[in-house]
Amino acid sequence: MTDAQVHEFRLPDLGEGLTEAELVSWSVAVGEGVALNQVIAEVETAKALVELPSPYAGTVLALLAEPGEVVAVGAPLIRIGGAGTPGPTEPEQAEPEHGSVLVGYGPSAAPESRRASRRPDAKPSARRLARELGVDLDAVPGTGAGGAVTVGDVRAGTAPSARETRTPIRGVRKQTAAAVTRSAFTAPHVTEFVTVDVTASMDLLARLHAVPEFAELGRSPLPLVAKVVLVALRAHPSLNSSWDEDRQEIVTKHYVNLGIATATDRGLLVPTVKDAHLMSLVELTRAIDEVTEAARSGRATPADLSGGTVTITNVGMFGVDAGTPILTPGEAAIVCLGAVARRPWVVDEEIAVRWVSTLGLSFDHRLVDGDQASRFLADVASTLTDPLTLLARA
């Protein structure tokens, strides 16, 4: 075999300034044939799970990294022989087993052993937990659909005597830690709160769900709050700006890429709805559903998880009343939606039971003065109290 027949595939630049990725699993084994653009591996960057297609067709000669290994961009991953290149030979067996023998591969049991080396069927969350706990998925019996290994199966395979677990800091957790540390120690954070009667908004949502365009959509108040935030930003552009330290400039954005803080099995991700300011409420609702589902399922690309200009986080979905969120690096504001609950409220000097929620706003005090933040938050609150005013401002 000549060197020209052997191709070495290196970890490509996955964009967004990423310098490394963790190899999650191989989809091929040594000796197997590979087609052009066939998925050969899955890697996890600090922002997304990414499937790597093969740029070559041929036979797998060597796998140059192990699952769980962190590989630098440009480092070799796999060697593939060109079309017609024989696969690697295995040591000759002293006492070959009964059965037909394929030349260069040993007894017929060899292909089965290669198939067994491929990754077991497991949910992404189960694979991630197995890596964190050091559990061998091959040794875990699956109880999920089709024998898939579930999170529960992985936990059941963990030694009960362990008193502590040490988890390597990598992937999304590493990226999140770096981002919040950089934000917390760079941007002077201030957080304000306002408690709001959102009964009229909840009534509006109930009526909207009777409209065919909304029939298949969820009942979360998040999209309506997002729409109100987008409208309020028009009057308060400082909250949609960024600080350019190198040029000593404040950059005011004339577009809004809305980040949606999303809890996933891999950790906190912030997918963005690009040009959200141009969307109707129906379009915005669908876009939020799409980007958050892509993030949770691991389908979000690095581009989907970057480029935000302002963020919303919904701690209310966990039953939490309020929070003091840390800014996404490079952004001036993050809005926090608390739980919407039935509470006593004074209406026309009488006590009534109303839908009430607490809104929080964290902002970068370099970019936003206290009065600007307060007026923005008050605008959002007043619109949620009387959502019909949204028609006049939208």
From TrEMBL:
What sections of the protein cross the membrane? Answer: none
Name of the top EC class for this enzyme: transferase
* GO MF term set: acetyltransferase activity; lipoic acid binding
What would be one Gene Ontology cellular-component term for the protein?
cytoplasm
Q: Which Pfam families does the entry link to?
A: 2-oxoacid_dh (PF00198), Biotin_lipoyl (PF00364), E3_binding (PF02817)
Highest rank taxon of the organism: Bacteria
Q: Which UniProt keywords apply?
A: Acyltransferase, Lipoyl, Transferase
Biased composition annotated in UniProt, kind: Basic and acidic residues: 112-127
Concerning InterPro entries, the annotation shows: 2-oxoacid_DH_actylTfrase (IPR001078), 2-oxoacid_DH_E2_comp (IPR050743), Biotin_lipoyl (IPR000089), CAT-like_dom_sf (IPR023213), E3-bd_dom_sf (IPR036625), PSBD (IPR004167), Single_hybrid_motif (IPR011053)
EC number of the protein: 2.3.1.-
The segments labelled Disordered in the record are 83-127
- According to its UniProt record, which cofactors does this protein need? (R)-lipoate
The protein in question is named Dihydrolipoamide acetyltransferase component of pyruvate dehydrogenase complex
Q: Which organism is it from?
A: Rhodococcus spelaei
